[in-house]
UniProtKB/TrEMBL annotation:
The keyword DNA-binding does not apply. The lineage of its organism: Bacteria, Bacillati, Actinomycetota, Actinomycetes, Kitasatosporales. It holds the Pfam family Antibiotic_NAT. Its EC number is 2.3.1.-. InterPro entries: Amioglycoside_AcTrfase, Antibiotic_NAT-like. Belongs to the antibiotic N-acetyltransferase family. Keywords: Acyltransferase, Antibiotic resistance, Transferase. This is Aminoglycoside N(3)-acetyltransferase. It comes from the Bacteria. It catalyses: a 2-deoxystreptamine antibiotic + acetyl-CoA = an N(3)-acetyl-2-deoxystreptamine antibiotic + CoA + H(+). It is an enzyme of class 2 (transferase).
Amino acid sequence: MTVPGAGAGWRTGVSAGELTAQLRALGVRPGQTLLVQASTRALGPVAGGSAGALAALRAAVGPTGTLVAYTATPENSDTSRLHARATAALDARELAAFRAAMPPFDRWTTPSSPTMGRLAEELRTTPGALRSGHPQTSFAALGPAAARLLDPHPLDCHLGERSPTGRLYAERAHALLIGVPLWCCTAYHLADYRVPKIPSKTYGCVVAGPDGRARWQHFEAPDLDDLHFPELAEAIRADLGERISGGPLGAAACFLVPIAPAVDAAAGWLNARAGALTG
């Protein structure tokens, strides 16, 4: 899902050390695996900008912890809302030219910003970071658990059990939401896969063929959306209570959410709603 970023050029502001202390107060501990989704604009001025914020996060989880960011590229898809908005006013000839000019996804070089924000891109481009290979819903990770969290990431499992999302659940990871609402957590999509008879649809994206040239690839996968997430998050909040911690980080309000209990609560709510609709 889309998270706003901030402009470049920060030089002064809250220090990395101060941010690390605030992260400790939120409940972030050394050795944790942490999915971070952030609005750097909400975070406010940070010394060193997004690099300073990432340094604070790395210090908080320590050398045995792993940071994960959602580095999705919905602009690479012809089935996303982002693509639909970008092409809505184009005629047939303009649409064909637009599609022909779309660059193929490359897990190592395709940027995730501005769609996913500056902090996600900062993590993705940090030396030592790895990235999953899904051309629409990739994740990047930095830390000792990165390789086992990210691969494999099959085309037909954007955010399900066989994706990094499923492995974050198994890892008992936490999600840190910085300056974004409680509903803005990609990991909740794992609950969608736990609803019986989840509908599917055909997705399309641009990838590099064996010759390196761009080609369209289409595949069937569960039909995912986040329009129900605001209501879903209220159910998660009611179920988890004090297991969701909150507090400030810089100028941002934050939530620290245990992913597995949150997904379990979300799946319960989704299945109860599905039963009510069909009962």
